[in-house]
Amino acid sequence: MSLTAEDTTSADLGLHWKPGFESLGPAFFTHLNPTPLPAPYWVGHSEGVAQWLGLPADWRTPEALQALTGSLAVAGTRPLATVYSGHQFGVWAGQLGDGRAILLGETAGGLEVQLKGAGRTPYSRGGDGRAVLRSSIREFLASEAMHGLGIPTTRALCVTGSDAPVRRETLETAAVVTRVAPSFIRFGHFEHFAARGQHEELRALADFVIDRFYPACRGDARFDGNAYASLLNAVSERTAALMAQWQAAGFCHGVMNTDNMSILGLTIDYGPFQFLDGFDPGHICNHSDSSGRYAFNQQPNVAYWNLFCLAQALLPLIGEEERAMAALASYRTVFPAEFEARMRAKLGLGEARPDDLALVEALLRLLAAGRVDWPIFWRRLAEHRAGGELAPVRDLFLDSAGFDAWMLSFSERIAQEPRSLEPDSMLKANPKFVLRNHLAQEAIEQAQRKDFSGVARLLALMQAPYDDHPGMDAMAGFPPDWASTIEISCSS
Ligand code: AMP
Ligand code: MG
Predict the structure, then answer these.
(1) Nearest protein Cα to ligand 1, atom 14
(2) Is the beta carbon of 94 within 6 A of some atom in ligand 1?
(3) Cα gap 303→212, rounded to integer Å
(4) Strands 29-31, 131-132: parallel, antiparallel or unpaired by DSSP?
(5) How far apart are CA 53 and CA 207, in angstroms?
(6) Three-state DSSP class for 28?
(7) Are residue 199 and residue 330 in the same domain, yes or no?
(8) Same structural domain for residues 210 and 262?
(9) Is there a contact between 118 and 105 (Cβ–Cβ < 8 Å)?
(10) What's the DSSP call for residue 83?
(11) Are 34 and 80 in contact (CB under 8 A)?
(12) Pocket flag, ligand 1, residue 260 (CB < 6 Å)
């Protein structure tokens, strides 16, 4: 990346760009430039994402810092904000849209680069268009942590900060997350054009998504050969698989509005999310969610509800309601099958057996009754299976008799395995390091004092969460008492 003498108004990030979302036409977005963030600085960055994008080795130049915070245009791009609508907390919210995220463009490698917190857009609805450092660090670390766990997600190249004040409940400072994904299209994009009766745009959007991401839908003979029903089916199955991964990882999203549901089945829009500490199936991580609509154990059902909204939006293209319902039907079998498979992997089991679900359910009841720490239980069980003592697992349960009974059925189940699995296979399915709220909080408070080393340290752990990382055991321990007092709301 270099600035030539003639060109001091744009930065060349060293990327090639191609027409992407922009090719849909002006009904789908508004062109606009980010609002410059004054005196920016680097807060954190992911070399993994830099490589994924194909950035040069020395990409973190002063010009890149300016470009990723809106003070310099990125050569070859024409930024835009997209329009979408959605259901929020079960209620139709009408038009929303990228209120603070600005899409720079799509790279030749097919990755969209978006600046979240880059200033007001026509879709800001009274918001300031900014994101605070706190929530930007949470999104950056969480999306890289999900990737480290092998869970589909949008990713983040970097967080850039500024001392510019931003008012939330208190005065905070502004930041931008540079997000990267093959597409940021949401269910809400489809709902938007359906609600307005703009069926041509609806079809163009569906065709765009099918051509790029779901080409097999074109030749699908099921659903009377209707490619849009096939798309709904494919999105539904990807979403089912994603929910299974969330539930197995103990990940609570917190704001599963239809505008926060990715058409690619990616985890998207990290706000008040939480990785569970003690296992509480009804845990509500979003302080603003008074009814518990988005409680941990509601997520698979809410995802189905959201898919139903997508089905309604696609109905003008699918034609018959029955066909749309047929396309959704497999969610009911794919989710439980995927969930069981994920749990079997966590238990180090190979082939499926009829009683596996009962074994998993008995364990979940036991864990819930004792509010047993989710990551620590699994890791200790994995360590035991890899040759360690049983006592550290057993000590987690007040109900020792209940645990012993479960452990007996688990041992009997293991004995049925046709061939013994690698003793450490469970260590590769149960992370040692999890981005718990209190860990993120400590790194945030450090960063608010301009020390960004905590962010970098957490990132390194979360990018390789199954590894041992000698000397880092303190980051794999129980949460401190104050962790339960952290209140995370929608405010970000
Ligand atoms: P969320 O549920 O946080 O993903 O956001 C819901 C909607 O509010 C989206 O349209 C966002 O773009 C918009 N939004 C959230 N915060 C802001 C903000 N500070 N300024 C402008 N728009 C915002
Ligand atoms: Mg959102």
Answers:
(1) 99
(2) no
(3) 23
(4) unpaired
(5) 25
(6) helix
(7) yes
(8) yes
(9) no
(10) -
(11) no
(12) yes
CA distance linking residue 317 with residue 308, whole number of Å: 15
Give the position, in ligand 1's atom list, of the atom nearest the Cα of 490.
Answer: 3
- The encoded tokens of residue 185 equal 């299209």
55 neighbors 110 (Cβ within 8 angstroms): no
Tell whether 355 and 330 lie within a shared domain.
no
- pTM, full prediction: 0.97
CA 334 remoteness from chain centre:
20
- Give the pLDDT confidence of 343-390 residue by residue, as tens digits: 999 999 998 999 999 999 999 999 999 999 999 999 999 999 999 999
Tell me, yes or no, whether 157 and 174 share the same domain.
Answer: yes
C-alpha span between 43 and 69 (Å, rounded): 12
* Domain extent at residue 33: 10-181
Q: Are residues 71 and 110 in the same domain?
A: yes
Decide which of 321, 341, 361 is a domain's last residue. Answer: 341
- What is the spatial distance between Cα 122 and Cα 32, in angstroms, rounded to a whole number? 9
Last-in-domain residue among 114, 146, 181? 181
The total number of structural domains that make up the chain: 3
Ligand 1 pocket: which of 35, 37, 96 to mutate (most atoms within 8 A of CB): 96
Task: Sort residue 471 into left (φ over 0), alpha (ψ -120 to 50) or beta.
Answer: left
The predicted pLDDT at position 222 comes to 98
Cβ–Cβ under 8 Å, residues 447 and 455: yes
Q: Would residue 317 count as lying in a domain?
A: yes
Q: How many angstroms separate the alpha carbon of residue 62 from the centre of ligand 2? A: 30
Residues 27 and 30: their CA atoms lie apart, in Å, by 8
- The residues that are catalytic are 259
Asked whether residue 255 is domain-assigned, the answer is yes
Q: Where do runs of H (alpha helix) occur along 150-264? A: 187-195, 199-213, 227-249
Pairing of strands 10-11, 73-74: parallel
Token pair, residue 110, equals: 């097919």
97 pocket-lining for ligand 1 (C-beta < 6 Å) = yes
Torsions phi, psi for 94 (to 5 deg): 75, -155
Residue 17's pLDDT is what?
A: 98
Give, in order, the Cα–Cα distances in Å from 155 to each of 113, 131, 147. 10, 17, 8
C-beta 106 within 6 A of ligand 1: no
Phi, psi of 130 (to 5 degrees): -105, 165
Query: 């109905």: which residue's tokens?
Result: 315
* Residue ranges of the chain with per-residue pLDDT less than 50: 1-6
Predicted confidence at residue 3, as pLDDT, reads 44
- Whole-angstrom Cα distance, residue 331 to residue 328? 6
Ligand nearest to the CA of 167: 1
Rounded Cα distance between 212 and 207, Å, is 8
Contact 456, 140 (CB under 8 A): no
